[in-house]
Write a structure and sequence with these properties.
heterodimer, A: mainly alpha, 4 helices, 11% strand, B: 371 residues, mainly alpha, three-stranded antiparallel β-sheet, 9 strands, 12% strand
């Protein structure tokens, strides 16, 4: 008698060509390595600072208000001091705020931070916190 | 005696501070530290930049207008001759003229009297009563003339002084009247100048606003370009750091664009019912199944309820009646299935008897019952 019982049974099988199978395996190994990289924050400029012409226009506007006896802010625009990123680019980076937020998270909940880091798989010894 | 001018309110101090007098005014001190290199330095009178000049101009215009509004015309009073001191107008040589005239007249009178004395002496009447009367009469007439002449000279001098004083009064009045008009014209000019200053201030402010807007717009363009550079750099960095992960997808992308032949094999383990179904599908719903038409019968399984599954071979008789059976809608079918006699004992509703007397099975109904 044939196997599979009274109702029988069926199986299907698909064969992947060798020339696809081998590169796919290598790609998977590469993905496993890539996931160890972790998150790399961008520490460059995010926002361009006021241009000199904008600063001049701002001073002119404040001067106009002052000339007409109106009150003007005495402490600049309220923005932090712009950083010189070289190449004539002055601006602001969000990295310091990101760094502080990450440190704050680590100080508040070290276990949570550790879970994040373990999932990132980042084992860079130069990375702060590892 | 003379006319007088007096101000109802002294506005000299107001005019002294007026910007029209070249002095800056204003109740505030601009705090903007302008005067940067390359900026218009202006005259220094109204500030260093256009805004300060505009504000100062408007303020100066307001001050000038206010000062002009406070202007009060001078009060001019007509001069009076009554009680006037005319000594200043008296001819300082009048007394000399009068004295000289009197001396001249008295010398002429003396000459006349000497002549009269001589004539009296010649007539022998010198020292007589007639001579005395004649002298007295001559002296009376002389002094009458002397008094009249002196009086006329004095009168002429007084009238001359009076006329000069009157002329002075008239000139003073004209001067005062002119000065009043000049004051009014000055006030009017101050108002006009104030209006002009205000207008120029507004114009300067508007122009400064437009220029500053242009400066700001240019600055916005500059900043936008810098921002675009930053964004481009961020994109480069993101591309660099994300490259390892993004390359992982290259293979799937390539496979998505490539036709990949896949060998597919499907295998099936046949069950008893599959055979039964196969018999029903190939042979039709009604199939010959009489065991008398079969040979080499071999039981291969149990379908349930005591009904077996068999294989066989059709005998010659089966083929002989095949056409007749087909006319009744009954086919021969595969050589696998059930035995009609066995089914009839258990499920007689699934078995029919043909005109030839052989039995056939309704496989469709049998499958429904068994499942």
């Amino acid at each position: 008698m044939s196997g599979g019982g009274k109702g029988g049974g069926s199986t299907s099988k698909q064969e992947i060509p060798k020339w696809v199978e081998e590169p796919s395996k290598r790609n998977l190994r590469r993905a496993e390595v890539a996931q160890q990289i972790g998150y790399q924050p961008y520490i460059g400029a995010d926002l361009a600072a006021f241009s000199p012409a904008q600063e001049a226009a701002r001073e002119n506007t404040m001067g106009a208000a002052s000339a007409y006896g109106l009150s003007v802010p005495t402490s600049g625009s309220g923005l932090p001091q712009a950083t010189d990123f070289g190449g004539g680019i002055r601006g602001y980076s969000s990295f310091p705020m990101f760094d502080r937020a990450r440190d704050e998270m680590r100080s508040r909940d070290a276990n949570q931070a550790a879970i994040y880091d373990s999932l990132f798989g980042d084992r860079n010894p130069q990375r702060k916190g590892n | 005696m003379g006319g007088s001018r007096s101000k109802f309110q002294d506005t000299s101090s107001v005019y002294a501070d007026s910007p029209l007098e070249g002095k800056s005014v204003g109740s505030y001190t601009p705090t903007f530290a302008g005067n940067k290199s390359g900026q218009y330095q202006g005259t220094g009178m109204f500030g260093n930049n256009a805004y300060e000049q505009a504000a100062s101009g408007i303020t100066a215009g307001m001050d000038a207008t206010a000062a002009a509004g406070m202007y009060s015309p001078e009060k001019v009073q007509a001069g009076q001759m009554a009680g006037a001191d005319l000594s200043a107008y008296t001819n300082p040589y009048e007394q000399q003229v009068v004295q000289q005239t009197q001396d001249d007249m008295m010398r002429a009178q003396q000459i006349q009297q000497n002549l009269s004395d001589y004539q009296m002496g010649a007539a022998g009447g010198f020292g007589g009563s007639r001579h005395g009367i004649a002298d007295a009469e001559s002296n009376r007439a002389f002094y009458d003339r002397l008094g009249a002449t002196t009086g006329q000279l004095r009168q002429a001098g007084f009238q001359n002084a009076q006329q000069q004083a009157q002329a002075d009064l008239n000139r003073q009045y004209q001067a005062d009247t002119f000065n009043v008009g000049a004051g009014e014209r000055t006030a009017q000019r101050a108002i006009q100048a104030g209006n002009q200053l205000g207008s120029m201030g507004n114009l300067g402010f508007t122009q400064a606003q437009e220029i500053n807007r242009d400066v700001r717009n240019q600055g916005n363009v500059d900043q936008l370009m810098a921002q675009q550079l930053i964004d481009a750099a961020k994109g480069q960095f993101a591309g660099y750091t994300g490259a390892p992960a993004s390359t992982i997808g290259y293979l799937s992308n390539a496979l998505g664009a490539t036709t990949v032949p896949v060998n597919s094999q499907q295998t099936k383990d046949v069950g008893l019912f599959d055979y039964l179904s196969m018999g029903a599908q190939v042979g039709g719903a009604m199939a010959m199944s009489d065991m008398r038409l079969k040979t080499e019968i071999n039981k291969i399984g149990e379908l349930g309820q005591g009904i077996g599954l068999y294989t066989w071979k059709w005998n010659d008789k089966a083929y002989q009646i095949e056409d007749e059976m087909r006319k009744e809608g009954i086919t021969i079918g595969n050589e696998v299935g059930v035995m009609a006699q066995e089914v009839e004992e258990i499920l007689p509703e699934c078995v029919i008897e043909t005109k030839s007397g052989y039995k056939a099975v309704d496989y469709q109904k049998l499958l429904e019952v068994l499942h």
